[in-house]
Amino acid sequence: MRLRQVAFVAENLAKVREELFQLLGLSEDYADPGVGEFGLENSVMAIGDTFLEVVAPTQPGTTAGRLLERRGGDGGYMVLVQTDNIEFMRNHTESLKVRKIWEFDSADTKAFHLHPKDIGGAILSVDQMEPPQSWRWAGPDWESRQALWVSSIRSVSIQAQDPENMAKRWGKVLDESVQELNGVWAVMLEDASIVFHNDIDGRGEGLSAMAFNATNLDAIRQQASKMNIAVEDADNKTTLMHCGVRLSFISAAA
User: Fold this and answer.
1) Domain that holds residue 54
2) With a cut of 50, which residues of the chain have pLDDT below it?
């Protein structure tokens, strides 16, 4: 199981998109017309073979819009993982009585979204691609639209009232191992992790942070300075707030 995509929700897509372009060293993205089904517009940005998405409501009454209201502004929205056995995951989640809120089935892509009330924290999408290295949601030729200063998503974090129980729930749903280190709980995936921690900002349950493997920390720091974004710096790590999410950039060698 791989972590392939993380989605944020924003009130102003154009603004957040442009700022992320500057921070990540991007010049192109993909706007998926399919999200119109949910009353949304989006931007999907390629980070190696992982992806950062930003969605924004285009009409009232959307799930994304309600989340913006409930959590008081921009923030995390969704986690997308890739499996090589979607039929097992479909049967497995049904056996756990986890509701599906959307399903998709085509020759190259099979996917479903799980109800956040049944797992906690965020919408979880389980996806299978054919071939496995592809990613339908990023559009054609995403390999040519790469971020310059980050190479992959390293982790995504979700805050909860009871991080241990939520981590164990996600681990059970994903059929993956859960580890605890110094009071922090994480579901361990193939090359990334989903981390669970206490509510640190008073906004309630939700996707709160993510980390990238960075290839050029200096460029990221310089861009943040130009944009007047406050950062926390360490030798191999830079952390800042953007789109209501705490973003960490960690030297890929660290």
Assistant:
1) 2-142
2) none
